[in-house]
Amino acid sequence: MNITNPQTDISRILFTEKQIAARVEALGMELTEEYRDKKPVMVCVLKGASFFYIDLCRQMQCHIDMDFISVSSYGAASKSSGVVRLIKDLDTDITGRHVVLVEDIIDSGLTLTYLREFFGARKPASIRTVSFLDKTARHAGELKTDYCGFEIPDEFVVGYGLDYANYYRNLPYIGVLKPSCYE
Ligand code: IMP
Ligand code: MG
Question: What is the atom index within ligand 1 of the atom nearest the CA of 104?
């Protein structure tokens, strides 16, 4: 690990704070229309989705329930371990409820597939996913999130909640991490 300064470890910025805010506002409006009378349970997948989740919930102008889960598929590496582990479950009973899973990024799609099956088994009225970012090339369109902030190329990105080894989450923008930081 060769991380130095949060700013200089970034090779380029993909989305600025302003661009993110505009996109999240638009998504919030879309979700408000869809869920206006449904009192959905908005589920934050910690920790990566945290900033996105809070900003998105703040843009929803209808009643929502807020709850948090924590999963791990990565450890401290920049490649998925292929194993999804549930670290913190929901407090809310989602049976018969409309559930919206809020994710930071879809890479291989393993986490999303696992979560949909895991929470789908509790018989919610509906279950949909919102992912802030989507590396579409990594899962060849086999799997689709219902709502997506931005599609991105297959590069390792950090900021706005996304980490490398738990660092960089507090950057206000999405940036590409220099490979020298993790190789
Ligand atoms: P998947 O299960 O392979 O789709 O991986 C999803 C998880 O891997 C995300 O929730 C992130 O925590 C992590 N991840 C995948 N790509 C990146 C990236 O470019 N930057 C930071 N984390 C990532
Ligand atoms: Mg992560």
Answer: 10
